[in-house]
Amino acid sequence: MILIGRNLSPFVRRTAAVxxxxxxxxxxxxxxxxxDQTEIKESNPIGRVPALILPDGETLIDSNAIIDYVIxxxxxxxxxxxxxxxxxxxxxxxxxxxxxxMEKSVAISYEQNRRPTEKIYPEWLMYLEAQxxxxxxxxxxxxxxxxxxxxxxxITLADITTVCxxxxxxIRMPDNIESKGISALxxxxxxxxxxxxxxxxxxxx
Length: 205
Ligand SMILES: N[C@@H](CCC(=O)N[C@@H](CS)C(=O)NCC(=O)O)C(=O)O
Prior knowledge:
By secondary structure, the chain is mainly α. Helices cover about 55% and strands about 5% of the residues.
């Protein structure tokens, strides 16, 4: 299988980390959305990463759909996402909360870095930042009231997604990450990155 995209994208990184955790074998094409649009569009017509090309040529797009496939195919003991019931709903809720905050973080970065300064709309930026902060507060509450991992004694998709979000923020907002009051989330990131399958996906910036 070929994973398209660089781990600087938190969506690509969470996909790579899940694939490593379940021992799914893959190669990674480190394409960038800024520089490699033509090649990325061969896999995803709207030019977004990640995409996953399966051995028979079928191509999956969007980290959620790719992870859904990877878990179904390779996580036979369903360690990362319970197969049904309240446990599954809890893990999915936290996962999608982190995924939503990732989207807001990436939108903030695009607003700040991909527009000419005079075209940045400060009210919109403030709106996005409020969404980011509210999402982080909710995640911090979950992390500070959990024990081993966010949802139980074993690591799940919720932890992996949350850690990829936190590490992305460390890279994109290094100056104000400490002021966000997310000590439990920062500790979660340290702990998860000590697992080689996750730590080795950390982008070197
Ligand atoms: N919902 C998608 C979001 C993917 C996404 O927004 N990826 C960004 C990279 S961080 C991208 O490809 N941006 C380029 C663009 O939107 O044009 C997922 O979970 O995979």
